[in-house]
Amino acid sequence: MRVPNSVVLPVGTHVDCCQEEEVEEKRHDIMARISAMLAERKNNLAHFIDNLEGSEEPEFYVDQWERLKEMESCTLTILNLVAVNCTNHCDIKKLEATILQHVKNEELFPEVVRVLPPVYRQVEAAIIDIAQSEEMAGHG
């Protein structure tokens, strides 16, 4: 919540332990709790800022006020919760596709069109080599 322009994709697991209607109820409940948490955070920040501005000697609190104003300006985008059954390969692929779809969204991630340094490709290749080696555990 302190990183400017953050994007969060909530993921609900253990869908296999719930009935289909329970999944929707829980999805709605989780998203409502997230919205309530964000609203509370916004109200708390506004309250702290108002307290500092209304203090007898606000010049002593300029640093705190600036940090709070900076936190207040940070936007947080919450995407729709993705419910997955982690024991189902198709659900894992669905989650992967959802993540890739969002990451490629230039409105959410304007930096996606930026060319990455060559070292990123080297690191990615090393990770793939490790993942494909026989030493890697079967569960990943």
Automatic annotation (TrEMBL):
InterPro entries: P-loop_NTPase. This is MFHA1 protein. It comes from Ceyx cyanopectus (Indigo-banded kingfisher). The lineage of its organism: Eukaryota, Metazoa, Chordata, Craniata, Vertebrata. The gene is Mfhas1_1.
